[in-house]
Design a protein that fits this description.
single chain, about 260 residues, mainly alpha, elongated
Length: about 260
C-alpha cells in the first residue's frame, strides 16, 4: 500500500515539479508583485505625482472598502465563469487601471473624482489577487493527491505564504533604489521634477510587467472547472491514478 509520508526535500521536489502548482505559484507571485508595488508606493504617488496629499487617507479608505465589496461580487462571477477566468478578468482590470494612471491628468476637482473612481475600479483587481489564487490552491492539492499520492498541504501553503513575503521584500528593495535614482530626498519638502515622474512610472510600469508575466503563467495553468470537478468525484470514490514510476520514487524517498 502506498504511503504519502515522504521526506521534506522529496516533498519540495515533488511540489515544484508538479506543473499546476508551479504555474499557480508563479501566477500568485507575479500578481502579488504587481499589487505590492502599487501598495508600497501609492502614498508618495498621491503626495507628489497627484498633489493630493490631504486626500490620501480617503483615497486609501475607498480602495480598501472597494476591495471588500468586490469580494462577494467576485464570488458570483466565479460561479458563472470559473476561478481561472475570473482571476484573468481581475488582473486585466487592475492592469488597465494602472495603465490609465500614465495618461490621466489629476489636476483640480476632476482629478480628485478620478482618483476615487480608479480606487473603486482598482479594488476589483486587488480583490481578485487576494481571493482567487488561494481558492485555487486546494484544487491543485487535490490534483496532486490524485495523481501522485502526495498530501503535503503544509508545503503547498508555505511556499504560497513565502511568495507574498518575497513580493514585499522585492518591492521595498527595488523601490528604494529607484527613489534614489529619481532624486527623492525624504529630508526635503520640495522634490525635483524627476520625483513625480519617477513615482508615476513606479506605480505603473513594473506592476504592469509583473501582471503580464502572471497572466502568461495563468494562461498555461492546466486545471479547468471540469477537471477539478472530475478530480473531486474521483477522490470521493477513492480512485487513485498513481503512475508506477511515481509510486516507486516516492516509496524510495520515504527514508529521506
Amino acid at each position: 500500500m502506498y504511503s504519502s509520508k515522504i521526506g521534506l526535500f522529496a516533498g519540495i521536489r515533488i511540489v515544484f515539479t508538479f506543473r499546476p502548482y508551479l504555474l499557480l505559484f508563479l501566477t500568485q507571485l507575479f500578481g502579488w508583485l504587481g499589487i505590492t508595488f502599487v501598495q508600497g508606493n501609492y502614498a508618495l504617488y498621491i503626495k507628489y505625482a497627484l498633489d493630493l496629499e490631504d486626500m490620501y487617507p480617503y483615497v486609501i479608505a475607498v480602495l480598501l472598502m472597494a476591495t471588500i465589496v468586490w469580494m462577494p461580487l467576485w464570488q458570483v462571477v466565479m460561479r458563472k465563469i470559473g476561478k481561472k477566468a475570473a482571476l484573468t478578468a481581475g488582473l486585466w482590470i487592475f492592469m488597465v487601471t494602472l495603465l490609465s494612471l500614465l495618461f490621466i491628468d489629476f489636476a483640480g476637482d476632476w482629478g480628485v473624482f478620478l482618483a476615487f473612481t480608479l480606487s473603486v475600479i482598482g479594488g476589483a483587481g486587488v480583490a481578485a489577487g487576494y481571493l482567487f489564487p488561494w481558492s485555487m490552491l486546494p484544487d491543485v492539492i487535490d490534483e496532486a493527491y490524485l495523481k501522485m499520492g502526495v498530501r503535503r498541504e503544509e508545503l503547498f501553503y508555505a511556499f504560497f505564504v513565502f511568495g507574498t513575503k518575497f513580493s514585499s521584500g522585492v518591492t521595498l528593495g527595488l523601490s528604494t533604489g529607484i527613489y534614489k535614482a529619481g532624486g527623492y530626498d525624504e529630508t526635503k519638502c520640495d522634490q525635483p521634477w524627476t520625483v513625480p515622474l519617477t513615482l508615476k512610472l513606479l506605480v505603473t510600469v513594473p506592476p504592469i510587467i509583473f501582471i503580464l508575466i502572471g497572466l502568461f503563467c495563468l494562461h498555461h495553468y492546466p486545471l479547468s472547472e471540469e477537471s477539478v470537478e472530475r478530480t473531486r468525484k474521483q477522490l470521493e470514490l477513492g480512485e487513485r491514478r498513481i503512475p508506477e514510476h511515481t509510486l516507486q520514487c516516492c516509496v524510495n524517498t520515504d527514508k529521506d
